[in-house]
Amino acid sequence: MMGMMDYDAIAVGEMDLAFGRPFLEEMAEKYDLPLISANVVDHKTKEPIFDPYVVREVDGVRVGFVGVISPERHIIAQVETKLDSKLEIGDPTEYTSKVLPEVREQADLVVLLSHTGIETSEFLAEDLDVDVLVVGHYPAIQAQPKEIGGTLVAMAGSKSDRFGILDLTLGPEGGEILRHEGDAIRLMAKGPEVAEITLMAQEADRREKEERRQKQLAAQREREAARQQEKTAKVQDRGGVFGAESCKACHEPVYESWMETPHATAFATLAEADAWDNPDCIGCHVTGIDDKHFVDDVNVAPEVWNVQCEECHGSGLQHARDGSYVTIGEELCRKCHDSENSPDFDFETYYEYGVH
To answer: In terms of pLDDT, which residue wins out, 345 or 193?
Structure first.
């Protein structure tokens, strides 16, 4: 898109270098991007990697554009690359001063594209012999440029939110600025008027929204996985018992039927008899206890109170969907309904009202 917009000059910023120098050089050549930077230099030769400046003629006026970046801007590489060993960012004042005499000889007006933020830009405006300074890497807006040390300083925000305009009226010799007027126009939501750019922008927007959605889904899945792990850990701590409420989600009619049986209130009857902490009684009134006639730890979790689904069907951790989990039988019942605790037990009679 930047290539289609036909810029006269583009100052390199740290984000442009995030994928490495070879990639940026390839893109510049492919899309005819006039990248400039006076102080992004080779770490060995100390020579600029890009053209330090360009000179363009605008309405008969020769305008020289110089690009600089602040050494404080950190390049965060997005790919495996020895980026720091291939280039370095030099002092902007030093490197700009080296090329300014050449630019002055060729241009009537000198514009410094300063990707440095406002503070460094203000220092550069005072220290360097430039006519106009455009601030980059800074979110503030200076629609009407201000004058610092004889230099007009303008900025139109960041991230292409606004389109900066600076109209200059020069004197007959070309270098003297007689009048100036600036603006920072917010770009309309409908996008540029060029149909091809509009389609590209819409596709980029679609991809960004999809990436954001995928990140949200991934975060949601991560939270859910953590919640499940925590839940599973708790289940493991109580002998693998999820509890009847978990079964209810898929087996509500069976759950409601079970709620009408004595098994659903087995722990309550134990409490009514003031035997809720009796290790000889608890095992038969809760779920998931192997030794029904003696419990070492009487502080059982509420999730295992009463004789629930998993007492007969096994832990939900081994839940089967082929019917094989139905394990009800007389032998299972007699673990608690033995001759001592339930002398009148009759499996057929108890089964009718005691299960579900």
So the answer is: 345
